Automatic annotation (TrEMBL):
Pfam families: TauD. One of its GO terms (molecular function) is dioxygenase activity. InterPro entries: AlphaKG_dependent_hydroxylases, TauD-like_sf, TauD/TfdA-like. PANTHER family: GAMMA-BUTYROBETAINE HYDROXYLASE-RELATED, OS08G0383800 PROTEIN. Keywords: Dioxygenase, Oxidoreductase. It comes from Corchorus olitorius. SUPFAM superfamilies: Clavaminate synthase-like. Residues 38-319 form the TauD/TfdA-like domain. The lineage of its organism: Eukaryota, Viridiplantae, Streptophyta, Embryophyta, Tracheophyta. This is Taurine catabolism dioxygenase TauD/TfdA.
Length: 322
């Protein structure tokens, strides 16, 4: 390993790892020796090798720190702040609670439900580049955080549905999502608009929505319908080998009770295309069993991620960075 990193890390393995286009996902980094797994040694290693570690995240898309003594949200926050990456506030439908400084709960929707694959804040003008997850309490069963190399979805969709992909790419996509005014933690998409926009004032909410690239329609029950579009089907990001990422949420929002996805001109998306896309995403997924103290870094530009149904208890915390 470069930059003297053998002093701080060794490459490990985890069940479920895959090699995709020559890259191991997730790349597992462990303490080089048992006595070097304390949080102080980890922070020292990360501080000494910030650029190297950031390049690892881009190269491998997912990096898992395992075997280090990361105990609580305070330790996790120290890891996040080590890099100096700018914080980005979460905007989206998932109910979440602020825990400590830059640390929040992940989606607090029922553990019995599957949270579908997505790029974090994919529909907002500025999405986080990095997503960090910390496992404080691993679930007894299920509860994995599967992720998917986004470029593989694009490659396979272009191969199977070249004309449909070309049409969606040319026209762009439009999404709608309906939210109540107050939070409903019985739903994985139950975040109310007041919490999402940080205000109960409608005019202020509209102003903030506009800044994020959304239009709003107020509903008689006090809820709101947000309209987003046009949005791209795929995107290419610097430093990621020119890969076309499947940077959309078509499968997750198409034909749902609270959401919709169409082409930007209103043309309906072909049902068989959406269904097959969902199958491809699942076929390309990668997952591992959470262990206590795990810290997972995801390149949000390159990976979709989700959450498998789980038996309680499960506590995975999150931080997002620009």
């Amino acid at each position: 390993m470069e930059f003297g990193c053998k002093e701080y890390f060794k490459v490990g393995k985890c069940q479920g790892q895959k090699v995709v286009d020559g890259e191991t996902m997730p790349l597992v980094l462990e303490p080089p020796e048992t006595h070097k797994g304390d949080i102080e040694s980890l922070l020292l290693g990360l501080k000494a090798n910030k650029d190297w570690f950031e390049q690892l995240i881009i190269k491998n898309s997912a990096v898992l720190l395992r075997g280090f003594d990361v105990k609580n949200p305070q330790d996790f926050n120290e890891i996040v702040e080590t890099f100096g990456w700018e914080d980005i506030r979460y905007v989206g439908p998932a109910p979440r609670t602020h825990i400590y400084k830059r640390v929040w709960t992940a989606n607090e929707g029922p553990l019995s439900e599957f949270i579908y694959y997505h790029h974090e804040m994919v529909l907002i003008k500025e999405s986080p580049k990095k997503l960090m997850l910390f496992c404080e309490v691993p679930p007894p069963e299920g509860g994995e955080t599967p992720f998917v190399p986004s470029f593989r979805v694009t490659e396979r969709m272009v191969e199977e549905f070249p004309e449909a992909v070309e049409e969606m790419e040319a026209k762009g996509l439009k999404y709608t999502f309906t939210a109540l005014s107050k939070n409903d933690t019985s739903s994985m998409r139950g975040r109310g608009w007041e919490d999402a926009f940080g205000t109960s004032d409608r005019e202020e909410a509209e102003k903030r929505a506009k800044a994020l690239g959304m239009d709003m329609e107020w509903l008689p029950n006090g809820g709101v319908k947000t309209i987003l579009g046009p949005r791209p089907l795929t995107r290419v990001f610097e430093g990621r080998k020119g890969r076309r990422m499947w940077f959309n949420t078509v499968v997750g929002m198409h034909g749902k009770e609270l959401s919709s996805a169409t082409m930007a001109d209103g043309t309906e998306l072909p049902e068989k295309v959406v269904k097959r896309c969902g199958q491809i995403i699942e076929e390309e997924s990668i997952q591992f069993k959470w262990e206590k103290g795990d810290v997972l870094f995801l390149d949000n530009m390159a990976l979709l991620h989700g959450r498998r149904p789980s038996k309680p208890p499960r506590r995975v915390l999150v931080a997002t960075c620009k």
